[in-house]
Structures are given as structure tokens and as C-alpha cells.
Amino acid sequence: MTELLAPAGNIECAYAAIDSGADAIYLGLKSFSARASAGNFGYEELAALCARAHALGVRVHVALNTLVKESERENFINSAIAAHNAGADALIIQDIFLGAYLKKTYPRLCLHLSTQAGTNNIYGARLAKRFGFDRVILARETPLDEIKKIAAIIETEVFVQGALCTCFSGQCYFSSFAGGNSGNRGRCKQPCRKLYTIDREGFEEKAYALSLSDLSVGEDIIKLAEAGVYSFKIEGRMRRPEYVAAAVKYYRGILDGIPEKGDLSALKRTYNRGNYTKGLAFGQDKTFISRSVQGHIGEYCGTVKVVGGKYLCLSEVICRAGDSFKVLRSGKEVGGADFVSPAKGGFIISSGKRLLNGDKVFITTDSSLTSKLLGHKKLRGVNLSVFVAESEPMRAIIDGKEYCSQFIPSVASSRPVSRGDIVKCFDKVDTYPFKITYGEVEICGSPFVPASALNAFRREVYANYYSGISRAPHDKIENMLALPEIENSVAINRRSAVIARDFTGVDCDIAIFKPNDYSDPDFSGVYGFKGEKFLFIPPYFNGELFEAIKPRLELFDGVYCDGYWAVEFCRENNKKLFAGTGFNIANSISLSYLDAEYIALSKELTFSELQPLCLGNTFCLSSGNLKLMDLLYCPFGRTCKTCDRRNVYTLTDENGRAFPMRRYKLDSCAFEVYNCVPLVAVQSFTGNLSDCTLGNAAEISALSNDADALRKYFENYTSGHSKNPVF
């Protein structure tokens, strides 16, 4: 058994998903949604949608998948309970520790761990299961062989269609630090979709260097099913109803074994960025990066020929008024175009750009297709029997449930009620999603039933029946329990920690050693350090990498990691955990549920937001390099034969800002993107953590407690969010 799960950014998309054959839909509320710009739902609208969905056998999952600050925790928990009480079948949570609290406090909640939690290995799956989650939504980077292992541990959901985040799930801070709008708070401004240059031969021209093609696994969805995946997720809460309908119909056809295997043409015409990629579950393919095209290019339909000053699109495709197009030249966008009129050999288009012979035309809006996709309505088959007799209450039976009228028919003095009257009345289903078929319609004697009484009975029958079939499969939660309060430590953490690749001459209490190559690490850079030593492990880590690294752990007191899964890894391997900034600890509930030796608090909090969370073992990222993204793919398209294999490249945007891009080795090359200027946010209320991945650790650590000296040292710097809150 599997589930086809569709996005519902607004009510129109929700209906499109349901009507097209989705088994479940997912949506966000007005707050705590990772798609804050989507239409999203209020509680009354959610309750009405849940009722309709349940009546049609469709489940509703509500995403509360953003980071939660201390000031928001009560509102967040109230929102979770309200969504549950409105009928939500499951809640999608990013913060695994808040989820653990919710499950312990309100056991009847069904929780799914968001892809933003970055689950990509068996340790993450085990942790989610131990914390009471019913399902994990895997990171998009998780390979197929690892998916199979995880699916054997816990129910699993995997993306099969839609936009891909360029950064590893839950670890993107590009929008946050480059523009003040946090992706972890649902307000990503998508800087990854902008133009950049990279200082490597062949990549110096401006291109969409970080913009990924849309995911479309197509018939490989069957391989995911064979690997044990339960739920297949279509991304797209920001997209239109016709896209939702096309995507659902496409995958419904494949899963149900329909001979034509769904309509890929319809899907391309509703949204197609980069002509699709199979995604990293199946390995990086040639179409993974969409360097030339950022947005929707639709489906190829013809070629431009300039005739008498007009643009003729040579095509066998039938187009009509209302259709729109995108024109590409040598694979790059030229501009848009609109249908003008049919013509011999094709049709005439108009464009604000000058078009040339040979330009390729792609249809991006197919007006007739939109009507076709949204024309079907899903209805529930209802078998109805009605019995009317003199001097007895009228009776109606639906699915074995009997309903009786308060009105009692008398003997007709003129015209008794007829079968036609009853059928005509009950054919009116109002707004209910019913398709009526009739069993028995029995009339005994000559009963008189006024039209008003018959209509009232119909309304009562349908309302009661709908109430029964639209109920949520769980009881409501009546009261919210008192929130736990954090027990602040009296002691202030005065220790210093440094992330670096070489600790020669470094002055700090805790060394966090960061290798360049995890397949064959060189640990000489940490030899001789006298303090505590932690091994930096990236948030994406699985398979044979664990086997390669486990024997080396004896050199270290513990592990520093930005991935939640490290809690379980350290627990099972009896190692201390330094929970990194990627844990995004931003509230006291999460802090209290995190079992770690040391904890780096969220780097998206202001000093005033950080201080109430500080304990004797907490740290604040205060200086050095500011990591914005983890890239688990090669931005050079795996052109290994011509690669210069430098350790650091420079990614430059249209404003001239230069972002260092560090290459390191897992089982293959991966990359980290850092902020264009270093961080100086030294404070005195907890431990200071310095990231010296790219800098001179000895020089920076010597100044780590002196903000003025660091400002002089770096010259250009940012104070991050220490003073300005993230939205």
C-alpha cells in the first residue's frame, strides 16, 4: 500500500489534488509554515477542508515546519493542537525536540518529521522513532540504498516531483544572512535562483549556477516503492491548481498501472524547470543543474521562422487564444510570447523581444489543458433507499445507516408524493460531494408530503450522513498543559571552541577538527592539542562513510555535527555530542530535550533572544566564517576530468559579493558556501564558538574574546543577527 501526497497552497489547489486522485494532501497554516507566501489556511477553513477530504477518503497533513523561538512556543503548541482538533491526520514538524515534547505530552498526535530535519541515514530514523514520530520525510539527497535501510525502520515519505532546494535540507542560511529573510522561518527569498559566476575555467560567465532543475522521478517511483517507501510527495505549495492536478494524474497513472503511464506532456506544460532531473536518490545526472533557465520553460512545441515581419512558429501542435510561450535561443531564455492566430504550418506569436529564425518555442500556458485538468470533480458514491408511508416517519438508508424524519405523512386528499418527487428532491446534493444511486424507493399507500417537508428531510439526512463520514479519525484534545520552564544554570560558560583544519598554535578549550577528506582523513592537524577534541561530521553522512570513520573516533572525545541524527549516533557509539548551530536550537523546550555535552544555539537569534537560553554548556557562534549552505552535488556538473580540484572557489553574485565555496570529500565531492564577509558577534553571556574553516585559526582564536580586535583583523565583517532579528 502506498500514498500519493499532493501540495495544497490554497483551497483551489486542495480541491485540484483531491479531484485528481491524491490519497493525501499537505498544507500550511497562517503561521509556522515553511511556505509563508502560500495562501495557507485558517482553522475554520482547515476544518471544512478536512471534513470534505475525509468524506472522500483523503487524508490531510498540516505542516508546522519552521523554527520556533522562545516567545512563540505557546502559540506553536496551540497551533498544533488546533490543527489536530480541526481534523488534521498528521502534523509535519521540523524541530525534532519540540516534536518529542508534543508526542510525550499529547500521545494521540500523529507526527511526521519534516524533510527540514535532514534525515538521511539509519541513525536519524532510529532517533525519530524513539522520539515518537510516526513517519520521516527524507532529505532529498538520500540515496536509494539508504532509503531502503530507513524504510525498514520507520514509515518513510520521499519527494518525487517539484522544486529542489540547492542546499541540504534544513541547513540553508543564504536567504537569512544575505537578505534577512530566513528559509527556516518559511520566508526564503531564493538567492540560489540568481545569477552567479564561479572562478573556474568554463564557469566565468553569469549563469544560474546554483539553480536546480525540477525533480521528476517518473516511472522510477516504482523503484522507490520496491525500496519500501510508503508516501510519494509532490512539492509545490506555491504552484497553481493545474500543476497540482497534472502532477497527481501523472503519478496516479504510473502507480495504478494505467497503460499510458500518466501524461508527462501535461505536467511539462503546467511547470517544468530545466527539463527535469531524477534527483540525487538516483545519482547526479546531466540535467541536475539548470544553469541557463531559472523558471518554467514548459514543453517544446516548435521553431521560429520570421515571415514578413511576423513570427511564425513552425509546429504541428494545435494552439489557441490564451496560450503563452517562452522562447529559448541556444538554450537560454530570450523572453515570452503569446498566441496571435493560426497559420499555415503552425501559428503566429507575438513577443516584446526580437526573435530570430531557429529560436525554440515552448508552451508554458495551455488554456484548453487547464480546463481539462480542472474539469473533473471527485464524488463519493452514495447508495440511497427511501421509504415513505402514511402515518409513519419517512426513512432513508445510506450505507446501512438509517435516518427518520420528524414529519409524519398524512393520507393525501389530492396528489400523493411520487417516486419522481423523491428522486428529484434527493438528486439535489447541495454542496455535498455525493453521487447518488438509488436502491429502493418505496411508497406505501397514498402519503402526502409537502415539498418543504421533503426538502427538510433531505437536508437533515445528508447533513447527518456527511457529519458521520467526515469526522477525523481521532478525538480532540481539550486542554493545553502548562509549558515546562527551563532551569537556567547559575554558571556562565566561559569556554571557547574553535572549528578548524589545523590546531597548531590555536588557543582554545575545545578543538573541533574538520577534515578535508572523510573517505581518507588526515588527523595530523589536531595532534598535540591538549584540550577536548571533537570530530566535525557534516549533516549529510551515511553508508560506508560511517564504517570509515568509526575506528577513528578513538582519537576524539566526541563528535560535532549539525544533524539531529548525531544524537542517536553518539548515544549508540558512547561518544559525547557537541550539537552544532545546525540543530537550530531556538527555544527552551528543544533545549531541555537535547541530550548533548555542548550545544551551539541557533545562529539566527539576536543576543536578547539567546540570553534566556544560555546554560553552563551552551555556545554562540561569535566569529570567523559563516556557513550558508551545504551542497551535496557538484556545481560543475561532475566534469572530473577537467577539474582543477582546488579547495576553495569563489561564487560571485550580480552585486559583486564574493562567497567562498569550499570543496571537501565524502564518498564524492561536496561543497560548503560561506558568507561574503566573516562574522564578528562576540558576547560575554555564554561560550564563544569560532569557525575558522577558511581562516587562520591561530590568529583568530587569539582574538576570539576581543570584538574590537576582530573587527580590525577582518576589516569587512557582519554582526549577523546578533542585533537584527530574522523574520
Task: Give a summary of the structure in a few sentences.
Helix 1 packs parallel to helix 9 (241-255) and helix 5 (122-130) crosses helix 15. The longest helix is centred in the middle third of the chain and has 19 residues, at 451-469. This protein has an 8-stranded parallel β-barrel with strand order 1-2-3-4-5-6-7-10, surrounded by 7 helices. Strands 23-24-25-26-27-28-29-35 form an 8-stranded parallel β-barrel.
Describe this structure in words.
- By secondary structure, this protein is an alpha/beta fold.
- It folds into 4 domains: 3-164 and 213-282, Copper homeostasis (CutC) domain (TIM Barrel), CATH 3.20.20.380; 299-373; 380-469, no CATH class; 496-626 and 678-714, TIM Barrel.
- It contains 19 helices and 35 strands.
- The strands form 6 sheets. It has an 8-stranded parallel barrel, surrounded by 7 helices.
- Strand 18 (395-398) and strand 19 form a beta hairpin.
- It is globular and about 110 Å long.
- The two termini are 40 Å apart.
- The mean pLDDT is 95.
Key attributes of the depicted protein:
single chain, 727 residues, alpha/beta, TIM Barrel, 8-stranded parallel β-barrel, 8-stranded parallel barrel, 19 helices, 23% helix
Low-pLDDT ranges: none
The percentage of residues in β strands lies in 25-35%
Largest sheet: 8 strands, parallel, barrel
Q: What's the CATH topology label of the largest domain? A: TIM Barrel
Overall number of strands: 35
Which strands sit side by side, in order, in the main sheet? 1-2-3-4-5-6-7-10
| Count of the separate structural domains | 4
Anisotropy-based shape: globular
How many individual helices?
19
Any idea what the CATH superfamily of the largest domain is called? Answer: Copper homeostasis (CutC) domain
